[in-house]
């Protein structure tokens, strides 16, 4: 049972370069997988339900600043984002995808690492608002979503991941994240079930 005043909805990396046609990830399978998962309509439904029930909504976005000068070269993902100019600050690619609305009362946090907790005020906001449960949605399931779920568990939150409101580049990667790592750190609940409970 979700306690509405102790629950927050996290919307991770729903940006054009990640899942929109014409974005930097086009050609990886990410656009097609997001469409197959129907994550834009599913997340939109969850956002609407959260607003209707006075549940905190936090949009967390990966944004590369200053042309990637400080993103680092320690990991392939950072090198690729810099070389591809993916999610560069101020570009169309870094903007929120069509169909995901950000309300004035929502929080929007930016970061340049995988976990939504890393380098943001996320933990401070959740603690100050007495939140103990986070519902995680967004992309990519095996990267930012998984990193955030792991950190959320380590920070002491009850973590819910929504399988049909997350996507990556294909079903194999989705399954690897959802059916292995998530079993140890999160509860999996579908969009329709969460909305019914709210």
From TrEMBL:
Matching InterPro entries: Isochorismatase-like_dom, Isochorismatase-like_hydrls, Isochorismatase-like_sf
A molecular-function term among this protein's GO annotations: hydrolase activity
Keyword Ion transport: no
Start and end residues of each Isochorismatase-like domain: 7-192
Keywords linked to the UniProt accession: Hydrolase
Superkingdom of this protein's organism: Bacteria
Pfam families reported for this sequence: Isochorismatase
Stored PANTHER family: ISOCHORISMATASE-LIKE DOMAIN-CONTAINING PROTEIN, PEROXYUREIDOACRYLATE/UREIDOACRYLATE AMIDOHYDROLASE-RELATED
Family note: Belongs to the isochorismatase family.
Protein name in UniProt: Cysteine hydrolase
Organism per entry: Limosilactobacillus agrestis
């Amino acid at each position: 049972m979700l306690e509405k005043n102790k629950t927050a909805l996290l919307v991770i990396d729903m940006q054009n370069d990640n899942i929109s046609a014409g974005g930097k990830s086009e050609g990886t399978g990410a656009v097609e997988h997001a469409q197959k998962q129907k994550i834009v309509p599913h997340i939109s439904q969850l956002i609407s339900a959260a607003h209707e029930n006075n549940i905190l909504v936090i949009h967390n976005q990966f944004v590369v600043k200053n042309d990637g000068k400080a993103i680092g070269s320690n990991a392939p993902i950072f090198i690729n984002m810099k070389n591809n100019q993916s999610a560069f600050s101020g570009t169309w690619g870094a903007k929120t995808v069509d169909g995901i609305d950000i309300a004035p009362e929502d929080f929007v946090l930016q970061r340049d690492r995988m976990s939504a907790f890393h380098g943001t005020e996320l933990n401070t906001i959740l603690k100050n608002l007495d939140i103990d449960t986070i519902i995680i949605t967004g992309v990519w399931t095996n990267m930012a979503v998984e990193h955030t779920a792991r950190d959320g568990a380590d920070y002491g939150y009850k973590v819910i991941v929504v399988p049909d409101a997350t996507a990556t580049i294909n079903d194999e990667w989705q399954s690897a994240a959802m059916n292995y790592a998530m079993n140890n750190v999160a509860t999996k609940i579908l969009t329709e079930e969460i909305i019914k409970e709210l």
